[in-house]
Amino acid sequence: MSPKPLVPSFSSSIIEDNRSDGYWVETFHFSKEDRVPGVITSGLVSGVIEFLDNPIASAEFQKSHNPKSTQTNESLLSSFAAWNKYEIGKFHSPVAVVAVDITKSGLTDIVICHDYGPFMLECDMKGGHITWLENPGREGLDKGHWKERYIGRWPAMHRIKAGFFTQKSFLEIIAASVVYGEHDKTTPIPIIRFQAPEKVLEATEWPHDIIDDRSFTVIHEITVKKLSGPNGLDSMIISSREGATWLYYEDNEWKRDLITIGEPRAPGQSKISESPGSGDHWGTGCADVGRIGDDPVAYIATLDPFHGTTACVYTKADRGLKEKKWKRHILDVYGTPNQQMKTGDGPGHYIVCADFDGDGDDEFLLSLFGSLDRDEKGESIPPNTGPNPNKGIMYYKAIDLKNGVFAKWKIAEESSARIAIGGFSGTGRIDLVSMAYNVARYYEEPHPVVTIHTNEFAPKVPQQTAAPITSTVWDGEGMVYFVDPVTIQSSHSLPLIEVANYAISVEIHPKKGKVPVLNGEGVKVLYGSISDGSGARNPLGTAPFPAASTTLTKDSSMEADPEKGAILLRLRPIHQKTFWHGAGEVHVKNIFDVGQIGLQLKPLHFIKVENLWWGGKFKGVDFYNMSGFYFRFLEDKTPIAHIQFWTAGPGVNCGVHNHSGDIFQEIHICLSPGTETGGMSRLKDAYVDTPPDQLNGLPQKAFDHLPLQLLYEHGGLWYRDSYGNAVRGRDNVVSYPWHKWQAGNGSNIDIWMALEFNPALKL
Amino acid sequence: MSPKPLVPSFSSSIIEDNRSDGYWVETFHFSKEDRVPGVITSGLVSGVIEFLDNPIASAEFQKSHNPKSTQTNESLLSSFAAWNKYEIGKFHSPVAVVAVDITKSGLTDIVICHDYGPFMLECDMKGGHITWLENPGREGLDKGHWKERYIGRWPAMHRIKAGFFTQKSFLEIIAASVVYGEHDKTTPIPIIRFQAPEKVLEATEWPHDIIDDRSFTVIHEITVKKLSGPNGLDSMIISSREGATWLYYEDNEWKRDLITIGEPRAPGQSKISESPGSGDHWGTGCADVGRIGDDPVAYIATLDPFHGTTACVYTKADRGLKEKKWKRHILDVYGTPNQQMKTGDGPGHYIVCADFDGDGDDEFLLSLFGSLDRDEKGESIPPNTGPNPNKGIMYYKAIDLKNGVFAKWKIAEESSARIAIGGFSGTGRIDLVSMAYNVARYYEEPHPVVTIHTNEFAPKVPQQTAAPITSTVWDGEGMVYFVDPVTIQSSHSLPLIEVANYAISVEIHPKKGKVPVLNGEGVKVLYGSISDGSGARNPLGTAPFPAASTTLTKDSSMEADPEKGAILLRLRPIHQKTFWHGAGEVHVKNIFDVGQIGLQLKPLHFIKVENLWWGGKFKGVDFYNMSGFYFRFLEDKTPIAHIQFWTAGPGVNCGVHNHSGDIFQEIHICLSPGTETGGMSRLKDAYVDTPPDQLNGLPQKAFDHLPLQLLYEHGGLWYRDSYGNAVRGRDNVVSYPWHKWQAGNGSNIDIWMALEFNPALKL
């Protein structure tokens, strides 16, 4: 969890006034071309289904037809009048609305259940129809109601959801009534799965089957989420008198996992009572699932029970490898004493989780519609017209999830039946639109309105899932992880260390990313390639030893590989001295910063080789080492390369070796040619039968020698097969001829960098 | 995860030298009376089982017999010689050791499997015996080997663990061979469950059954943890050629859940090959489970495969409500090229997770025994005698678990076969003891030693699971959660606010906790009680209205309730003025600090009641409110009380009401009697038939009036039944007579605090 939660701040404006009632609001991306969504609204009594067009969406649509428009998005959103309203359908007592592209045209259609009846206990036993409305496109918006087509029905139909619940090929609509039928809260309700037929425009109804008709009563909400993992099927949380239940399809059958019984049934509560005041509601009324960090199912937020009073979160308790147990934390109990009698009279109606503050953790919102009070005869007392504690939207944020400690802010004062969330303002933040509650003869909020609450506080740039460059400490060295360069949009850089006359940093560049270079800088590619148009530089692109090539650059702009992008080291001259007499004097400055993750890397410095675990044979030799940095890919942790630094004084033989105990492809870059002719020496073929313990005694004429100039690298020494690939020896080592760094006889020391590449990586 | 991981720092000393070999080390609490453990060590060739007695434990035992001893624990631990060594048994080729109290005497016994054979492919087909040694008590330590008793056998017996795996009544020993038998890596190995008989001292062997004999080959480790939740049975991670598998008993059967296949079997790897260099190891060699925050199974750390090279962590990926998928992150590949051929020749041997730095998250340690290299004929090359990269103990800490980013430190240079963890230094930190690896004809570390690494960096006081007082913001007010006072050992305090002449703080005190009070302070109990010996103060202890009592104190020390402890408000005079002319002038200072959790409470201030949502009837009245603070229990979130503050000017009638819309038991405490005779007025019985809308017009003689003096509270006004409990009315409200705060006619304002107690709580 973030240590510094932001204080939530929303600016609100009414986007629909003069409504006669209010029940539903649904986020509605009119077309897949639209950058921002509008909303669908409806009321149970008026029966009108309306599309409120987001002024940004309509303006952007107009602009694509009339590019001369200059209106800004901000000015559009601030203008109440700009949310154009279109009546797209009218039904008797419509309840739920779901938006989904049924025709696969790229235009979002609408599914509605209607002919509900005035309220649940007086539901229309011949009603509960499910109809879908075909989106006619923006050109058809002024032509009245959308074309209706039929899906199916069941009495008291109350919630419908769209998704892919049993398979991923044909769209499915899940439908659940609130009660089994008229005055029947006790018979389990059928949850019906309708599957889209191939010819949706010709079908007279959709084929359907029953998911469950023996488990749930008084279903108030169905919440659809991918609860079997992000690549799984859609599944559901059913909020019913039985509590909150995960309903999902697995192994060719529907399974139910009870998360919580919700508000327990109190002594005296009767299953069959219907009269107000008797308190025949228990279980859960609404639920959603909250993510914290990398756990997408970190908590369940619920409103318990039906039209409930009790805001709860359930956190994981008594955890093991299978996480089954949830601990209930009652955050708040809302409502007047009468509402707290659990008669289904509110004040809570809806719960939704989302990451409003953009910190990677989900907060949740609770809709409170208001104080519905009843007199001693059970008659409704008209609701308070102003704000009150049982009306509005509450915003809860987890502070200490394990202990169920949240912070709470009230972010809206108006009656809220339901909330639609989405990027309505187009800023990248999550905004919300709320519908006031007004259902005749139940709770009639005076002047029901639709209000947008625009997120004013979250950062506008959403968090990236992984930083392009991640650093940590690794047994006294620096470790740098990189994402695959093809996944990034811009270049990133990380300082590593200053050595001799160079500040060395590592960079990652996207495909075709611009890599500006300055005169005198060295650039060494670790992965991918860069090109200045005349030729590409690759990690292992230099011809085999004794060839050499420069890493030096002139003022220009190079470009990263068009297929792979690039990861590279940049060596920037820092106007230090260029020659040194001893390793202890060499400029070394540690600039690798892991402080932001609370770590510290003990400063790197040159260590005399005789003091290293393998350096016993170099007693008294002016030969030093400083190691180094690891470079790996973050996703699969594949090593790319490791670098370390060396110095050798005049005349020093750094030891003849052939890497029989290592598996890498090594090259060296000269940072200071202090001995003038220092560089790589390779044993001549004529001497290959020399016993290994006599190799260091051979005269220099036994070697082919390549002096390395400043910022030059030598071609790889390893043996290659006819395809140019490294030859592998016993135990999979990379086969090398015997070789050594041999210093010349100048008066300063050689300083160089060794790069050890992963031979398993195609470079 | 903590944002500032501590850099690990251990001081090491050798506690056993002059060993001829080394294989096992096991934490050993000699007796349940001992505060700190010692260790059991053993070697495969010497066959000697030794108890190394922790000098602190032996000194503390001596001290309890000879209280004159003055040696400190620190001086004891720093002394190598002080770890007395006792040979407690000797066997042919003992392998695993487990410590458990078999006799239920309070003394820990030892179980050993032995007669293994020289190494796994040449295992003794008549061996694999499991024997237990009876702890004779400290008095018997000088009397040689401990009494041996028999449990059972299977060839190549290699790992044994103790616990309660299928039930919680009879001790179970789980035993697994490393291979099925001589030169047989391919036949699945029987995992055997031995169950302790009732008469363990008389039994000739223990009854046993087979848990599984068709699933696992080359079992290198069994890790026992409670993976079905902290209250579940013990279960196991089996590290075998099949990978890491959770093996557990549920619903009357043994179940296997594969966590990972570990190191994949490479092309060309043969199941039946035995010769060195052919690379016939894959899967997992060792595993442990790491906790992060409140997730006890946040990651799995493994060493892959058998005597492996590859340090991995598995993190949760593609997560849903059932968490099944684990993503592999290869953190490091160790070993010489020959070791990396997966011949079972190391260098890794053991993995263990624990919270070494005390931040609530588990780190893990990896034991590396050394570079076991072989020449071209497959003959072992003698190991390097000094430190090298494939020898020692690595410490890994999670930095970004989701992305598998860890930090790594090398905390020991010496060869490590196995690690025993425990509070050896008695500081509350987790220390470790490591055994060097020396098994003849396999890997023979020169001079094998047992080394203790004493944790020098973790905080000495372990984290509490929940802070006694937790605060957050709650819709513009302060929320304070308390643990149950009976769970705490010391008192804690939290500043709330300064109002008028008082700094108000809330305190929690343990049972019988001392509550010092100063002259002039007010103390109001919210939960439990406090007493000065002459009588207890309770939250609702004042006799019913019109009684009153003081919350004032004189210099003394009171004591919290011996059964319940206490939660209380303290009102400390701050030498401000004592009277004010208007609410706007009243001293108010916000001192409620939620900054440490990144929150901020908008400063509380007095608001004119006419501007509150319910205050429309008080237009123009000098009547102000400031709300307030909630007090609740953390565990179940049960409300205790809510407080708010009020002011009223001279002559103000604060409105006659009877709380018909509230459910609480309310009392008031006077903070400034500015109108001189302000206080609670209760409607006289004679006037009860007055229509409610005329109550505010009644003359003051219609009321019984109780002026409240400074720091006095009045007795509760609510109606009570014959047991003294509050009478409840319609909708469960607490029934009150009509009442009001009525200001007097002095020249200043009244300031008072209202406390609304939860009537469902027994106070």
From TrEMBL, chains A, B:
<feature type="domain" description="Aldos-2-ulose dehydratase beta-propeller">
    <location>
        <begin position="127"/>
        <end position="316"/>
    </location>
</feature>
<dbReference type="Pfam" id="PF18637">
    <property type="entry name" value="AUDH_Cupin"/>
</dbReference>
<dbReference type="InterPro" id="IPR040887">
    <property type="entry name" value="AUDH_Cupin"/>
</dbReference>
<protein>
    <recommendedName>
        <fullName>Aldos-2-ulose dehydratase/isomerase (AUDH) Cupin domain-containing protein</fullName>
    </recommendedName>
</protein>
<dbReference type="Pfam" id="PF22301">
    <property type="entry name" value="AUDH_beta_propeller"/>
</dbReference>
<dbReference type="InterPro" id="IPR028994">
    <property type="entry name" value="Integrin_alpha_N"/>
</dbReference>
<feature type="domain" description="Aldos-2-ulose dehydratase/isomerase (AUDH) Cupin">
    <location>
        <begin position="468"/>
        <end position="758"/>
    </location>
</feature>
<dbReference type="InterPro" id="IPR054583">
    <property type="entry name" value="Beta-prop_AUDH"/>
</dbReference>
